[in-house]
Amino acid sequence: MKEKLEQIKAEALRQIEESDALEKLNEVRVNFLGKKGELTAVLKSMKDVAPEERPKVGQLVNETREEIEKVLEESVRRMEKTVRDAKMRREVIDVTLPAKKNNVGHRHPNTIALEEVERIFIGMGYEVVEGPEIEKDYYNFEALNIPADHPAKDEQDTFYIDGDILLRTQTSSTQVHEMEKGRLPIRMIAPGRVFRADEVDATHSPSFHQIEGLVIDKNITFADLKGTLAKFAKELFGEDTRVKFRPHHFPFTEPSAEMDVTCFKCGGKGCRFCKGEGWIEILGCGMVHPHVLEMSGIDPEQYTGFAFGVGLERIALLKYEIDDMRLLYENDIRFLKQF
Ligand code: DAH
User: Fold this and answer.
1) Which of 135, 146, 281, 332 is close enough to 168 for a disulfide, judged by CB 3.0 to 4.6 Å?
2) Residue pair 258/284 in contact by the 8 Å Cβ criterion
3) Which residues of the chain are under the pLDDT cut of 50?
4) CA–CA gap between residue 131 and residue 149 (Å, rounded)
5) Cα three-residue angle 156-215-253, rounded to 5 degrees
6) In this structure, how many other beta carbons lie within 10 angstroms of the beta carbon of residue 100?
7) Is the Cβ atom of 212 under 6 angstroms away from ligand 1?
8) Is 217:303 a contact under the CB 8 Å cutoff?
């Protein structure tokens, strides 16, 4: 019996020694120490042993079991450590690796300029509204005092969806939508995209942006227009900026004007930037034509108003000293990042 136990032990230790995985060690445990294992079989065969021998044999079996268990336990611990170490090595983080660059975009100069304009007018109590880019001829032309045969229609040739529906050529169409709502007074700006059948060059694009402004209330005069737009120019281009109004013609305003600002590079003395003029044209404006008010259901005897329209790209180009409008549409991140 003793020999048999020695044999079992030797075989168990040999198998433990040979095990190269935790599953193998577990197999050894089951085979030798389990309910159907070899040692249990020995215990079961105790009935063949003489009664007086039994305690001794029992003790021997227990000792063998304990020895095998001890070695098995140690092997399991060693094996687990090896597995853990390998895992740690596999999952090690090399903190000296350069970090992945997170490439975030950059706000477009148009967006920056628009937010600046919105900030200025919101500060003066204006509301920011938007109108449709696909527009009826009526809103883009007719209701703005530009009937079918008006020469101003030629200057703003556009893309027609059909005879009556077109891509708007000017944000002035939003004036009509606002007036038709029938809520007075009105104090709004309306930024948005406009379209014209223009060839692309350094100063033209078939699609660009404007910001429209409209104020309608009782007793609004040209003095309100001047004060508001002078304030706007100072906020946008600096406190020292002066403004000048030149008479002009727009069908939907009377009187009409174009506003120039003193060149913010030379302060008005004349330089390369302002082409020696000292002044830079920035917007069109005027008192809303009584017939325009009337067509949208506002009584021109009770209400007056002023309007203005400014090119967003023009502001961005001036403010950021960009000399070619096409750069604004290429969306090259190296260009955009500079602003
Ligand atoms: N809509 C005009 C244009 O595209 C700009 C303009 C001029 C708008 C005078 C106005 C205005 O509101 O009063 O050329």
Assistant:
1) 135
2) yes
3) none
4) 25
5) 40
6) 6
7) yes
8) yes
Threshold 0.90, pTM exceeds: no
140 Cβ closer than 6 Å to some ligand 1 atom: no
Which residue, judged by its Cα, is nearest atom 4 of ligand 1?
A: 170
Distances (CA, A) of 137 to 53, 76, 148, 160, 161: 117, 86, 9, 9, 10
The CATH homologous superfamily of the domain defined by 109-336 = Bira Bifunctional Protein; Domain 2 (3.30.930.10)
As given in the structure block, the two tokens for residue 292 are 């325009």
Measured in whole angstroms, how far is the alpha carbon of residue 47 from the centre of its chain?
84
* Residue range 274-293, pLDDT digits in tens: 999 999 999 999 999 999 99
By CB atoms closer than 10 A (0-12, 13-18, 19+), residue 309 is: buried
* CB of 308 shorter than 6 A to ligand 1: yes
Q: Are 306 and 224 in contact (CB under 8 A)?
A: yes
- Burial of residue 230 (number of CB atoms within 10 Å: 0-12, 13-18, 19+): middle
What does the pLDDT look like over 58-81, one tens digit per residue? 888 888 999 999 999 999 999 999
Ligand 1 centre from 336 Cα, in Å?
A: 28
Q: Where are the domains of the chain?
A: 2-90, 109-336
The residue whose CB lies within 8 Å of the most ligand 1 atoms, and thus the one to mutate among 308, 312, 313, is 308
Q: Which residue has the tokens 């007036």?
A: 179
Contacts of 29 (CB under 8 A, 6+ apart): 72
What is each CA distance from 184 to 70, 181, 305, in whole angstroms? 94, 9, 11
Dist. CA 308 → ligand 1 center (Å): 6
